[in-house]
Design brief:
By secondary structure, this protein is an alpha+beta fold. The chain has helices spanning 17-21, 33-36, 50-60, 81-89, and strands at residues 2-3, 6-7, 43-45, 64-69, 74-80. Strand 3 (43-45), helix 3 and strand 4 (64-69) form a beta-alpha-beta unit. The longest helix is centred in the middle third of the chain and has 11 residues, at 50-60. The chain starts with a strand and ends with a helix.
Length: 90
């Protein structure tokens, strides 16, 4: 459950196979990745600074950004808010 700007995390037990087997979606739940995805893709070049990436994340309220190689023009990785926090707290 969401509280304020963070999440309330409580210890959880590992799910058993029986728990997953008993989980059922309603018959009308026919959602797919294509129907629930956000089509806007956010990316930064490999040369982007952590500050630039963090600014983009906060501006757009996102938690992951694709990292692209400007010379090759394709995705080479992904950076997350946890990745940024790990980098600045090291």
């Amino acid at each position: 459950p969401r509280r304020g700007h963070g999440y309330n995390r409580e210890p959880t037990e590992e799910l058993a196979d029986e728990d997953l087997e008993s989980f059922e979606l309603p018959d009308e739940a026919e959602e797919t990745a294509g129907t629930v995805m956000n089509a806007e893709v956010f990316h930064v070049p490999t040369s982007a600074t952590l500050e630039e990436i963090a600014r983009k994340m906060t501006t757009h309220k996102i938690h992951r950004v694709l990292v692209t190689d400007p010379e090759k023009g394709h995705v080479v990785g992904i950076i997350s808010t946890m990745g940024i926090l790990a980098a600045i707290s090291a």
